[in-house]
Specification:
The chain is of the alpha/beta class. The longest helix is centred in the N-terminal third of the chain and has 20 residues, at 191-210. 43% of the residues are buried. Residues 25-43 have low confidence and may be disordered. Bound molecules: flavin-adenine dinucleotide.
């Protein structure tokens, strides 16, 4: 509430005075609060002790929010093992304590993989590591040799903020960096290539500094792989999200990222009209889960692959879906990546990411399993040549199966061992959605608004590039609302439509029928995206497309506030929402807004930009409308408004930022640079919040 009252004039004066006096970095430092950090004290999790007990001579440690950092850490660890035969321990920093790190043998280097989340923050699981590194005495880690790779997105203000902080702390501690500090930029779409160039240089540097012998690279399984005779008894996973869902176990929660809740979708509908694009509104019930959320949080949804992609994958690698297998860790520090024993079919459907762009690194690893010399030669070229790989594979939007079939000219690859595939391909990750309901008006339901990822692929006629989770939601919506899919498909065939409107289908019943009646595994991820606690504070919301999702939640929250405080309601501040769609067909929740306006009177205003309406050549975007309303916006900011931006991180969020810089610079009669500084300070103070992806 204190922040709500922080005067804009005071903020501006402060921002400018501090910039003038100390420079920009000090400004940032002054407004960064670390009060929320928590420390882990248990001594049974001592990283030094565990490494020693397990005879490890190299540590790869990752702090990962969505699984990408983990994935690269594991790839790197694998390469250290195969190339240098090191005894590597690759673990999540969340699971260990670092207090005794100064006692780690100087012969045990560490490679850190740190992702950035939110406003330059460490991932949730790495907060304790951050606290340790920040507090470490200067010079006390001078024995430590390390490498560091950061994963971030340059479209965010605090690009790679967490890894940059880690680098600063490690330098301060006297630790010795081997090679150079690597940065991956998801905003430029270059994460994989950034990793590969950093990795090649780092392995060379490690070889030199540690005098390592290089061995021929060969796949070394991390688990002992065993095919089992037993077929689908109680202990065999059919693709359940965790072993807690196996028949003998009772799942009572708590439901988290690691233990998702099987939530029934109680209602779903198509939000777009008369268009070949789709956007699904889905309502997940939290009844009986004990899960709580706050308006502005995210829903995590763990999807599974479509029938078509599973079939294509199994056929390409000549795999038998009913084969049941077990993975036995040869090392106490490694756990199987998903519940085992399970069947190949279940693992491909539920546990592996088999679509999505291909990593060039995997091509290098595939060489030893190429089906013939000709394919081996092609793989060798593509694994080394970044430009050729981009031209032949990435630009054609091939997924892994498409890519290998392209190389073998459609012939199956029976030569690739299944345990290589399961250890090399990324594992299925949850997708996140900004919750579009209000925890006050619907505490037991979570609404999401998901646009379906479904585009024709120019490289493969008649085929579409499909997103895993959003097409699953669309299938649920069609079946739940008893839409006659067969009829649609029959018409399409008769009309010889070149790209089917429903390109993929799913097993909606799930493992052991657990997902029957439209259930899906979900969890809640708490965010910082929050309405001001004082309802009289003015609010500016900017959310075109599905970026409107959390603002539907915000407005429902204000409606509920008004209804619940009939006699003692504070006067609501002005709430203005800038929304954009192409035209009327994809105008989300168009029938709901007038209802909200009626209930909130003049305290709610919706301003709509259509970018492709009728024949008009003029495209209007939310950032244009902000400029049109510059006087009102500047007045609201001066009156202490909170600004929220949600949706596309690349074009929109940057365009909006530019418009706001212009408005503040003109209104305050300061340079654009100073206006940017003011916005930066508003961000650090929570008065300018972004929920962008
Ligand atoms: P994926 O399977 O993850 O694919 C991602 C994209 O890659 C798709 O566009 C797909 O078509 C494309 N693709 C697939 N294969 C290839 C290939 N071989 N080559 C090139 N491209 C390929 N989305 C919303 O709709 N609404 C929201 O409210 C929302 N909120 C979000 C909030 C946060 C914090 C974040 C991080 C994301 C949010 N998203 C939201 C995005 C959402 O999480 C998903 O990324 C999105 O729905 C796509 O998921 P998917 O599984 O359908 O696609």
């Amino acid at each position: 509430a204190g922040l709500d009252n922080l005067d804009f004039a005071v903020l501006c004066a402060l921002a400018l005075a501090v910039v003038a006096y100390f420079g920009k970095d000090t400004l940032k430092a002054m407004f960064t609060s670390d009060d929320s950090l928590t420390s882990v004290t248990s001594t049974s999790r001592d990283i030094v002790e565990v490494a020693k007990e397990n005879g490890k001579n190299y540590l790869v440690l990752y702090g990962s929010q969505t699984g990408t950092g983990e994935d690269y850490a594991k790839k790197f660890a694998k390469e250290l093992i195969t190339k240098f035969q090191l005894k590597v321990m690759c673990v999540d920093v969340e699971k260990y304590d670092f207090e005794n790190l100064s006692q780690l043998s100087p012969n045990v280097p560490i490679s850190f993989f740190i992702s950035t989340y939110g406003e330059g923050d460490f991932p949730d699981g790495a907060v304790a590591l951050e606290e340790f590194l920040r507090g470490v005495e200067a010079g006390s880690l001078s024995n430590l040799k390390y490498t560091l790779f950061g994963l971030g997105n340059s479209t965010y203000e605090f690009y790679n903020g967490a890894s940059k902080k880690a680098e600063e702390y490690l330098k301060e501690s006297g630790a010795n960096l081997i090679g150079s500090f690597g940065l991956a930029d998801d905003g430029a779409g270059t994460t994989d290539e950034d990793y590969l160039s950093w990795k090649d240089a780092t392995l060379d540097a490690l070889k030199d500094v540690l005098s390592l012998d290089e061995h021929e690279e060969k796949f070394e399984p991390a688990y002992k792989y065993e095919e089992l005779e037993q077929f689908y008894d109680e202990s065999v996973s059919h693709g359940e999200p965790t072993t807690a869902y196996l028949p003998d176990n009772v799942v009572k929660g708590p439901f988290t990222h690691n233990q998702p809740f099987l939530s029934p979708i109680v209602k779903s509908k198509e939000l777009f009209k008369n268009t070949d694009r789709n956007c699904i509104h889905a309502e997940f019930s939290l009844e009986g889960s004990n899960l709580k959320y706050t308006t502005g949080d995210h829903l995590g949804l763990l999807p599974s692959n479509s029938d078509e992609h599973v079939k294509q994958f199994l056929t390409t690698f000549n795999l038998k879906p009913d084969v049941v297998f077990d993975l036995i860790s040869t090392d106490a520090t490694i756990q199987p990546p998903f519940p085992v024993p399970t069947s190949i079919g279940a693992a491909v459907r539920h546990y592996l990411e088999i679509t999505g762009p291909v990593s060039r690194a995997v091509f290098g690893q595939l060489i030893e399993f190429a089906p013939n010399e000709e394919v081996k030669a092609k793989l060798s070229v593509l694994a080394k040549d970044k430009d050729e790989f981009a031209k032949q594979i990435t630009s054609k939007q091939f997924n892994f199966t498409d890519a290998v079939l392209y190389l073998s000219e459609g012939k199956p690859w029976s030569t690739v061992p299944w345990n290589f595939l399961l250890e090399t391909l990324p594992h299925m990750q949850p997708r996140y959605y900004s919750i579009s309901s209000s925890s006050t008006s619907e505490p037991n339901a979570v609404h999401v608004t998901a646009v379906v990822e479904n585009q024709p692929n120019p490289a493969q006629e008649g085929k579409k590039i499909t997103g895993v989770a959003t097409n699953l939601l669309r299938n649920v919506q069609l079946v739940q609302n008893k839409v006659d899919v067969a009829e649609i498909e029959k018409n399409e065939k008769e009309n010889k439509s070149s790209t089917p409107s429903l390109p993929v289908h799913y097993d909606l019943n799930g493992p052991r029928n657990l997902y029957k009646d439209f259930k899906l595994p979900i969890h809640i991820r708490h965010s910082q995206f929050r309405l001001p606690s004082n309802p009289s504070t003015p609010v500016i919301m900017i959310g075109p497309g599905t970026g409107v999702a959390p603002f539907r939640g915000f407005i429902r929250e204000r409606v509920a506030y008004k209804e619940n405080h009939k006699d003692d309601a504070e006067q609501l501040g002005k709430h203005i929402l800038f929304y954009g769609s192409r035209n009327h067909d994809d105008y989300l929740y168009s029938e709901e807004w007038p209802e909200y306006s009626k209930k909130l009177d003049e305290s709610f205003e919706l301003v709509v930009a259509h970018s492709r309406l009728g024949d008009s050549k003029k495209k209007t975007y939310v950032q244009d409308l902000l400029i049109e309303r510059r006087d009102d916006i500047f007045k609201m900011i001066k009156d202490g408004a909170f600004i929220y931006v949600c949706g596309d991180a690349k074009g929109m969020a940057q365009g909006v930022h530019r418009s706001l810089v212009q408005i503040i610079s003109e209104g305050n009669k300061v340079s654009e640079e100073d206006a940017s500084e003011i916005i930066k300070m508003m961000k650090t103070n929570g008065k300018y919040q972004e929920d962008v992806w």
